[in-house]
Amino acid sequence: MSSFETAFKIVTELSETFKANEIKYLSPGYQEAEVRKDFIDKFFIALGWDVNHDVQKNPYEQEVKVERGMNIGKAQKRADYAFFVKPNFSDVRFFVEAKKPSRSLYNPDDYFQAIRYGWNANTPLVVLTDFEELHILDSRFKPDINYSLHKLIYRYHFSEYLNSEKFASIYYLLSHNEVSENSIQKLADNLPKPKGKGYQKGLFKGGYQSIDESFLEELDDIRLTLAKSFKKMNPDLGSEILTEATQRTIDRLVFIRFLEDKLIEPEHYVSEFGNKGTAWNDFLTVSRMLDTKYNGVVFKNHSVIDSPKFNGPFDDDFSDICNELSHVNSAYDFNYIPIHILGSIYERFLGKIIHATAKQVKIEEKPEVRKAGGVYYTPQYIVKYIVDNTVGKQIEGKKPSDISKLKFADIACGSGSFLITVFDTIIQYVGKWYNENPDSANKDGAIDIGGEWILSLKQKRKILLENIFGVDIDYQAMEVTQLSLFLKLLEDETTATANEMMVLFKEQILPDLSKNIICGNSVIETDFFVDSMFPIEEERNIKVMNFKDRFPEIMKNGGFDVIVGNPPYVRIHNLDGKIVDYFLTNYKVTKGQIDIYSIFIEKSLKILKKNGNLGYIVPRFIQFNLDSDLVRKLLLENQIVNITEVGMPFKNASTECIVIIIQNGEKRLFNTQICEFYPGYSESKYLKEMDQNFFYEMPSLIFNTIIELEEYSIIKKIINISVPLKCVSKIRRGMEIGKKEIKENKSGIKVLLGEEVTKYNINYRNTFANPNHKEANRLKNISESEKLLIRRVSDKLITTYDNGKYYFIKNLYGIISTDVNLFFILGLLNSKLLNFFFKKYFTSKKEEIFPEIQSYHIDSLPIKKIDFEDKSEMTIVNKLISLVEIVLESNKKISLFASEQEIAFWENKKSSLVNQIDKIVYELYELSDEEIEIVENN
Q1: Which of 18, 732, 808, 938 is most buried by a 10 A CB count?
Q2: At 213, which helix (H) or strand (E)?
Q3: What is the C-alpha to C-alpha distance for residues 114 and 138, in angstroms, rounded to an integer?
Q4: How far apart are CA 353 and CA 643, in angstroms?
Q5: pLDDT score, position 849
Q6: Which distant-in-sequence residues (6+ apart) come within 8 Å of 638 by Cβ?
Q7: Which of 137, 566, 644 is nearest to 344 (CA)?
């Protein structure tokens, strides 16, 4: 019997049981807990889910999380069921909210409650059921009770469970097998598409906003309101202090709401601010109370906002903020917002600062963010991939006592997304280890819950202090990273477990992370200011730092075991001249238009332990950019464990990236793994392994990851019997003149545009340039000579011959030669073989290969060395030259004849000639039949 048939049989029996006792089950006395036990649990077990954890005993690896009735006041604080798919136990696939059957499911309150769970967790749909009915709701939209009933997608009555077609529509959406195959996202993709921040017409009413967009917008509004109010009440506050004071206030409000929704604090605070005094004074009172309990940077006494001299904001302003953010009125449920989503919100939030003048307050992007075109937050699936392949590999097979000695860092940590995932990875691994080693679990202080072991808060604090380290140049980023780690620390805690820290261990709940997460410049040390006079303000902005001073024990013991992250992408020539000089003096990877991520790579390798791992996401440009050859040389001196193409993972950015995993120290015998993990993939795809020494044979040490060994043997054969084109010719790029300027001229010197050149042909369209233009003078000699022209904007070699004294613009390269016949070179460059060489030798990616041909590509094209004394070889060469001449003549014939019959004749003749040229080129370069087949198949 198939899985579907088995499920249908079980659910049919459940439906018949419900029908036989319908009066009882629909009575008010039949409670939610009973319907869950009698029907809903069994329904989802039939769909393949391990609801009772009969198989998945480990609490850190359970695909169904079940809440057993927890109500606080009027509202329930947890969804009844949350469904995950291994190995990702962090991101909910869908929620199920259960109700007792005696009341109608179709009501705004229950819909709003269920949608709120889904929207906050960033899941596209939720299920509301009392078994009598099952409703599937769209949770992509910001919850609004006035529109909640419009979010119904499907509605089923239990009598329809008896219909195999109806039940199939449920089964193929919600069964374990189908959810594992992404059924829910597939449904969501086919729903009416949300339209940005506007309103969805038709079926769905109410505004669409993802949780991160919505909360970021709300935080921005709160920041501006607070900043203006602070400034009015404290006119002397400058921009920096105002930014800091506003940030700390928001951090506290968010943290308090988190404590409320997680039920770590049993009371609601934010909704009560203003009931005992002013809202601001109540806020400060609660902050002082929570500081004694929690410690940490969030509630620590702040020199400004906690000062008796500081005038709080207007009470109406702060009361409105608290009312909007309170659990009573807010759409946000911090129990369900994933910590990494909060991190992504804060990452973008940190991209702006408050700018205050005597008359106004406004929010501005930071200069470095403005230059970069925005904040690019690393998607969680990329973060996890990097952490799994670095931290995951380092802790694999180790005991908790061994892991406690390892040090993991992100030295450009931003809001802390990588460090949150590092922390979570260690917790998950250690929790699993304890469940496999219960004697050690008991001895080390883990908590036994029904025979399943979970880490205590004390153990998680220990991991945080012993394993997690971060640096960022932005003070607010450092503060937010600490906040994010605190949220992660408390994610699964309760009032009881939090109080235990104070009662049993007499410790505050949050650890002091001031020596773990610090503010400083990871790539500029204190020697920057030696023998130099700098303004104090400049010193404060640069924030020089020595790792050996800030992390003395770690550096004394050899450095960090793993460094992960997304280093800044900034061309160093955009930085201050003194900083550029410092980089040029102190880093060996600096060359040309180098990017600061290269500096971070070199620095990271310096502060890594021997055999430590580095995992970074960087622009794919690093694989082939000529100025990055020194970075590639540095990487090749270590073990390149993995190179993974990840496409364009950053929202609203067209930067193509790779993930690169390096092991510090001497190269090992094992090969480099080549993988791909493009947006939309459910997991990474392994492609092959390569010997990294292979890259030494590439021009400028290009990391060419697509070439196969048999292809490379052909490339090597070609190179061995050839000379680079630059050795037998002069190559020049065309005139730096815009198309518009050329097209406006009606006379002058004849100029070719890129699109006017095709293979073996010129389609001149009466384009001219001023003969007195300085660029015309620069290219006079080559332009008025017999030459070849190659198109620059192309993914293949497109070359033709010119003896008409055409000038040409920058989208073309000109080639002249006195050593080798131009027709001979032309036949080679247009051949399949040299196009094969071009694509395979220079590229590092499968798709969209070289939309732009660089001059160094042309310089290196292999021109077959000819023995002029060898009559048989000269016979082949002369035949090639003759065929090229006929092809060029054929193009002239095609342009002369208007008859379609004549054109077809010459086109066919030209095609035949080109095929003959390809065969001769194969013969010249001595390819075997097997090698020719490889080239032809490409």
Answers
A1: 808
A2: helix 211-233
A3: 10
A4: 36
A5: 47
A6: 605, 662, 663, 664, 665, 667
A7: 566
SS3 assignment, position 484: helix
Name the H helices within 521-640: 536-542, 547-550, 552-556, 577-586, 596-606, 629-636
Torsion angle (degrees, nearest 10) of CA 272, 278, 283, 284: -150
Among residues 638, 683, 691, the alpha carbon closest in space to that of 660 is found at 638
Distance CA 792, CA 702 (A): 20
pLDDT at 772: 87
Measured distance CA(462)–CA(205) in Å, rounded: 48
Query: Which residues touch 452 (CB under 8 Å, ≥6 apart)?
Result: 57, 58, 59, 435
Quick check: helix, strand or coil at residue 365? strand
Q: How far, rounded to the nearest angstrom, does the alpha carbon of residue 29 sit from its chain's CA centroid? A: 51
Q: What is the pLDDT of residues 429-473, one digit of tens each?
A: 999 999 999 999 989 999 888 788 999 999 999 999 999 999 999
- What is residue 444's three-state secondary structure? helix
All residue ranges of the chain with pLDDT < 70 are 1, 68-77, 193-209, 370-374, 501-506, 531-537, 667-670, 844-851, 895-898
Which structure tokens are listed for 443?
């001895």
**What are the beta bridge partners of residue 762?**
757
| pLDDT value for 197 | 40
Identify the CA nearest to 332 among candidates 415, 269, 246, 258: 258
pLDDT of res. 204: 39
Task: Report the C-alpha gap between 40 and 50 in whole angstroms.
Answer: 13
pLDDT at residue 743 in the model: 74
In a 3-state reduction of DSSP, which class is residue 888?
A: helix
Per the omega criterion (within 30 degrees of 0), is the bond before 87 cis?
yes
Rounded to the nearest angstrom, the gap between the alpha carbon of residue 709 and the centroid of all alpha carbons in its chain is: 31
What does the alpha-carbon distance between residue 109 and residue 115 come to, in Å, rounded to a whole number? Answer: 10
* CA distances, 461 to each of 453, 458, 466, 904 (Å): 17, 5, 9, 79
What are the structure tokens assigned to 177, written together? 């097998």
Q: Which positions ≥6 away from 676 have C-beta within 8 Å?
A: 644, 645, 646, 684, 685, 687
Residue given tokens 């440009």 in the structure block: 621
Rg over alpha carbons for the chain, rounded to the nearest Å, is: 34
The CATH code belonging to domain 3-190 is 3.90.1570.30
Strands, E, within 265-358: which ranges?
Answer: 352-356
Cβ(430)–Cβ(400) under 8 Å?
Answer: yes
8 Å CB contact between 593 and 516: no
Instruction: Show me where the domains of the chain are located.
Output: 3-190, 211-372
Q: Rounded CA gap, 552 and 711, in Å?
A: 50
- Burial of residue 879, with CB atoms counted within 10 A of its CB: 0-12 exposed, 13-18 middle, 19 or more buried: middle
Strand 452-454 relative to strand 757-758, pairing: unpaired
Residues 842 and 845: their CA atoms lie apart, in Å, by: 10
Question: Residues 376, 655: contact at Cβ < 8 Å?
Answer: yes
pLDDT at 17: 96
CA distance to 538, 779, 799, 806, per residue, from 766 (Å): 57, 19, 20, 11
Residue 815: predicted pLDDT: 95
Q: In this structure, are residues 387 and 429 in contact, taking their beta carbons and an 8 Å threshold?
A: no
**Tokens 């990273």 sit on residue:** 481
pLDDT for position 189: 87
What are 759-792's pLDDT values in tens digits? 999 988 888 888 888 888 889 999 999 999 999 9
What single DSSP character describes residue 697?
G
- What the block records as the tokens of 652 is 């609203």
SS (H, E, C) 265-317: CCCCCHHHCCCCCCHHHHHHHHHHHHHHHHCHHHHCCCCCCCCCCCCCCCHHH
SS3 689: strand
pTM of the model: 0.83
How many Å apart are CA 112 and CA 109, to the nearest integer? 5
Which amino acid type is present at position 612? Answer: G
